[in-house]
Amino acid sequence: MTEEEIVKENKKIAKQYKELLRISYRTLTDDDKTLIRQAFETAVDAHKDQRRKSGEAYIFHPIAVAKIVASEIGLDATSIAAALLHDVVEDTDYTLNDIEQMFGETVARIVDGLTKISHLKPERDVSLQAENFRKMLLTLNDDVRVIIIKIADRLHNMQTMDSMRADKQVKIASETLYIYAPMAHRIGLYNIKTELEDLSLKYTEPEMYQDILTKMKESKEDQDIYIQDFTKIISDSLDKEKLAYEIKGRPKSVFSIRKKILKQNITYDEVYDKFAIRIIYNCSQEDEKFLAWKIYSIVTDHFRPNPTRLRDWISSPKSTGYEALHITVMGPKGRWVEVQIRSQRMNEIAEKGYAAHYRYKNEDEENDENLDLWLNKLQEALENNEVNAVDFVEQFKLNLYSKEIFVFTPKGDLKSLPKGATPLDFGFSIHTEIGLKTRGARVNGKLVPLSHELKSGDQVDIITSEKAKPTNNWLEFANTARARSKIKSSLKDEKKLIAEDGKAVLIRKLKTQKIPFNDKTIAELIKYFKLKTSLDLFYRVGIGTIDNIKLKEFAASRSNAFVSFFKNKIRKPSAPYDIDKEEITHNYDQLVFGQEEEKLEYKLANCCNPIPGDPVFGFITVNDGIKVHKKNCPNAIQLQSNYAYRIIQAKWIDSSQQEFSAVIRLNGLDNLGLVSEITKEISNNLHVDMRKISFESHDSVFQGKITVVVKNKSILKKLMDRLKKINGIDKVTRE
């Protein structure tokens, strides 16, 4: 570079720095300015020899990120300094210690978090990318500002990606859609989320992007005229009320128009709400709610509202902190128009997300609590290690993009839950103990099954019982991360208790076979029954899968030294990996289909080769019977969308643990209290669940039919033996 060019570039850098201070969203004190100046000088020095792919000095990137943090998001001086320094430790000779000594612990912690994220290499493999995402979220433990600055960093990278290779552009854009846009949405940075989505679309679907953009530019003039007409009609009424307000038209993003076109299978011209009209009014915080409804009343005096499209996020703000009143009205020329009514404060929070809450911190302390609440929720999901990384990301995205529903407790308190939540999710959201003791639920006064999907406005009353406890089925009824993790850990504890009982039974049974109970015998038993851990063995004895007959077979094989010698030889390689591990493993060895979990003939699909334990579904082919595919099979989406009627639910189960239903027939002489004795006997047996019961009595002879759900045949046999002993019962048979 010539000297003249260097001077020119330095002037440009200085100009950018001045602009950074000028556009800062909050008032900067002299100390703040000193901190930012020091960070700026350190960054300039650190990056002095670096250039970006476009050829410009690297320092322009940290300044641009700091500008987004300062004006778009409105963070504090500490964050602006950290944004200026975000690449210093990773790319230059400066160490984290240097940063800590110069700028203090907080800035160093944020820079460290950002450096950790940069070291997570984006992976081709979705599950590794998902794992990276989980790790990235874990940096929230340090400071939420880490994620916010990272989002600003990604936004600037997306804005300046033109000079990159095409394949790199697509990769970065896809990752942005997968990770950063949902994060921005969750923190309430709606403007940034929209820009990230639109920029991603520009690289992932360039033709679609250009096409929609061109059409939007063409229709802008009509749109402006329409907004003027709309404004003219209501501004007189608003002026009469002496309100300070402004009316703006906000076009829908390219990404959301494309989403509508694909989802509803329509053309661009058929998308009716290509823009929203926003009425932003100025007032004190006490009058906000009153004025919002006053403006609502004025708008609906002129235009007919669509009653199903009213959204009141002022009385119940979204968990991102978003507040507004949304109405859809029939505007001029018979077109539906979305009108958003917000105060100046609500508008800032909508545009700048949680950071804007800090600005109102002194006036309204609760906003700070909202941020903590949100972080705690996120924390809970992160600490749930039960879920594998891909499920975690999908569930996290689901919780992000899913609309929220608001339900009431019996006392009238409001609870926010993700859409699709059930009474079980509600129970666990109130308190873990209530969730674990759930016996049933009443929604709006009516009894409903635990799988019932709640709707906004429902009043939910959980019926609890000391005897109730989670079953495997509960996992199918619970959708929130919190409920699922609590159910899983409760089931784990329950299994451990059964395993303890099983251990005592095993010691007794081995004694009768004259076999010593020691580590060697346990290892032999684990090998013999093809299990993995000692807990597996005790659990299966506890539930009766490994019964007397099987233990006798084991004793016989053991006493036959010759057979035993060869069996051990053959089985040596598959020695248990860690027999003392505190874990009960699933032995996925059976596929079942449909709600009834039937065993049917099937073939495994060659396109994705599912293995036991994979999430799968069945597809009924024309000539080949049922073909089983993995849920993430490349052909899954096409099969599910084109042939939904041929899809059959399927899952791998552990045959030793699966519950099954059986019908017991009873005959005998009728006497007073017989039915109560029978039901009492069944209720006393903890491992039996009664589903259906019918009794008929005719001339003092009675016949009964009971459908029970049991874990295995030995429990059923024990139950039938007990029923036979009841006075008056003659015959107990199984259908």
Summarize the structure.
With 735 residues, the protein is of the alpha+beta class.
- Proportion of residues in β-strands: 15-25%
Instruction: Supply the number of helical segments.
Output: 29
Number of strands: 20
Which term fits the overall shape? globular
Q: Helix fraction?
A: 40-55%
Residue windows where pLDDT falls under 50 for at least 5 positions: 361-368, 572-576
Mean pLDDT: 80
Structural class designation: alpha+beta
Structural description of this entry:
The chain is α+β, with helices and mostly antiparallel strands. It is 52% helix and 16% strand. Strands 1, 2, 3, 4, 5 and 6 form a six-stranded mixed beta sheet that branches. Strands 12-16-14-15-13 form a five-stranded mixed beta sheet. The longest helix is centred in the first third of the chain and has 35 residues, at 206-240. Mean pLDDT is 80; it is low at 361-368 and 572-576. In eubacteria ppGpp (guanosine 3'-diphosphate 5'-diphosphate) is a mediator of the stringent response that coordinates a variety of cellular activities in response to changes in nutritional abundance.
